[in-house]
Amino acid sequence: MSRFTSNNQPAPEKKKRGKSERTKILEAMQRTGHTESGFYDLLVERAHNPEDNFSYGELLKRLSPIQKAVMPHYPFELNSSLDHHQQAQQVVDAISKGDIPADVGTMIIGSITNMLKIKEVTDFEDRLKAIEEAQDDQS
Predict the structure, then answer these.
(1) Cα–Cα distance for residue pair 54/15, rounded to 1 Å
(2) Is the alpha carbon torsion for 115, 119, 120, 121 positive or negative?
(3) What's the sign of the alpha-carbon dihedral 56, 60, 63, 68?
(4) Could you tell me the pTM of the whole model?
(5) Nearest to residue 63, comparing CAs of 35, 44, 48?
């Protein structure tokens, strides 16, 4: 009986990565006799045209990008000694008291759920490995 081990795995399918959009655009520009720096020169020139709002906006986004939104910090202690369902209840209680917003509480409960899924898969892998080792010992 053939077992899946680190040395006995299906061969991964080799997929070639295609050219990036940037590479395709640069190649097209080169074919038509244009350069990347020439493109930026044109963009700046067009941005100064009061009738061209698109180019101005694009240039502005590059010069002064909008800051990425970051969730504020909410002090909240999760009792790690509790069972996971009790931790989730602790989060729900904090939401109902207004200690943390509902979206933050949902994110915390989602994190607890994901942690449990990771633990479940890890435990399953450990049990499967133990069964395979026990079969090898009997063979």
Answers:
(1) 37
(2) positive
(3) negative
(4) 0.50
(5) 44
